[in-house]
Amino acid sequence: MKALPQEERVALRRIIKLLEVNKRDFWLSVLAGAVGIGSAVGLSAVSAWMITRASQMPPVMALSISATAVRALGVSKAVLRYFNRIFSHRVALYGMSSLRTTVYSTLADSSTDVVTSVRRGDLLARMNTDVDAVGELIVKGIQPTWVAFFVSLISVAIVGSLSLPIGIVLLLGLIVSGIVGPYFALKGGRLAEETQVKDRTEISSRALTMLDSADELRISGKLSKLEAAQAHTEAKIYRNRDAAARPQALSIAIDTLAMGATVVLAIIIGSLQLAQGTLSETALAVCVLTPLAAFEGTQPLGEAAIQMVRSGKAAQRILDLLDRARAASSKSETAAAETVGSAQSAATTETVGSGQTADAVETTAAETDATTAGTTADTAAAGVAAAGVAADAAASGLVAHDLIIGWPDGPDVAGPFNFAFPRGKAVAIVGPSGIGKSTLLFSMSGMLSPHAGSMRLEGREVSRMDRTEVSQLLSLTAEDAHIFETSVLENLRVARPSVTEREAIVLLAEVGLGEWLTQLPDGVHTIMGDDAATISGGERRRLLLARALASPAQYLLLDEPGEHLDPETADPLIRDLLRAGKRTQHPRTIILATHRLTPLDAADHVILLARQENGEVGVAHSGTHAELVASVPEYAWAVAQEAAAPEAIMAETPAADPLLGPTFTAENMPAEAQR
């Protein structure tokens, strides 16, 4: 351990605590391992004594005990090694399970910032390869070291009791084999680990890309380039592995030479003592043959040293991920606490969907009256979402105050936003592709920490709330949400475990999958392929929406629910989703981001995001669908274009729809639309 850098030693100590090692089983594994190899040492000693004594032609009864001991030691060696494997692997496997659970739960409770800051291949390596490497620390690192220590003590005690000089020689040989040899193995292991970590991450990341996008890469002709790059990286790994093998080979050579030198010196010293009459023939045989078994204890220490390095590096990577997750949570809590005071004295925000007139907003120049629900550019520039009553930081619902959103370590994407979404309202967020609609939904759900301002759910900062508590109040269905390789019913039960078969059938029919369900061989018990690879994109999307509706959450956030669907299917579905919150006894808030405008007549409020003249992204217009059609020419023209050529909208052609273009301004419209 001392040969490891300080940071690796600290990381190993911390990670061992996370393994929650069962000390009883660990020491039982050490005991079984030490006694097992000790049986091998005893077997060599007794066999040497028995062979030498038998050559002296003693009475048969003089050898009976030693013969029985040989059989007992031979059997116990195998049995004890078996128990050693049982106990050590149980400790390691339970520890790996505990560590994975800790990592998964920590990441699940943290913001999305942490996960998105790590490449997929790197995250996969940390969750699998690195956790395995830490678990193997018990089996291949710590436990063999303790076993070697106790076996060495037993061996030196046996030989030293017969011949002190040979015992000292054996001790020195074991030190060389157990310390000097592993030092070179550790050096080679460090070289291999430092050069291969990045390469292994590249392999994992590239392999995921090739698997997930094989068809697209094959069509574009880039698959062969990725395969060549993969082969080059693999060849580089083999070269580095060969270079690292040299010091490891030296470690093995040192172990072999130490054992050979010890045996030779034992023969020389023993022969001199035999000539002097201070050592008997049988004792000489024991002193010469016992070291052969004694070095069996130190032989695994070279691999143990390599495992220490490998586990130390893996522990650092895992702890780096955990520390970032916990730091992000702490940062969110601190930021939330700092915004409480300012949020309570914030400027007036407008409640979406109410029909009341907005309170006057004081400005340094003059007072501006908001006469309609966000249909003027001045209102949008002020960051007012819609007309309504004032909402303070403690208001119920989903409340944003001076919210500026963005991804971790990236620039601000949009904001500031000031709005309040009470329960039971249906809100649609519309804007060009890449304007920040999905980022806004992620920030509303607390998956992304705000760059500035606050986002509160039922009066509490959503990013600092426990994720389990958030999931009971709010459900986010992302554009790339996962479909698990299990039955349709179990996929719906991800949102609510109590969903019955009858409820599942109703939910699927509600999202337009009733006929599809009747065609499945086992109905709701039909197994889906990995991430629903066996069904179409539209069916996959609707299955995710059914899962969202199954959730007991009071706030449903839906990202592009009409994607992969033709307009004739998407529009009724979006209308149904917008009305879904009012069908239950307890109204739910529906907030969805979409490109479709036609079905937004079912929404209580529509928010249009666009890039302002100053380059900032914010609310360009807001109000009901009818109000926007009547007062915003761009919006009315876009709705008319959808009705005239829905296929152009599905293709998301900016020239066909100004709402889907780079900005939301009148300049994007044809001249006849501006008139």
Automatic annotation (TrEMBL):
Q: Which GO terms describe its molecular function?
A: ABC-type oligopeptide transporter activity; ATP binding; ATP hydrolysis activity
Q: Which UniProt keywords apply?
A: ATP-binding, Membrane, Nucleotide-binding, Transmembrane, Transmembrane helix
Residue ranges spanning the membrane: these are 26-51, 57-80, 145-162, 168-186, 249-272
Membrane topology is:
Multi-pass membrane protein
Q: Which GO terms describe its cellular component?
A: plasma membrane
SUPFAM superfamilies this protein is in? Answer: ABC transporter transmembrane region, P-loop containing nucleoside triphosphate hydrolases
Specify the protein name: ABC transporter ATP-binding protein
Which organism is this protein's natural source? Actinobaculum suis
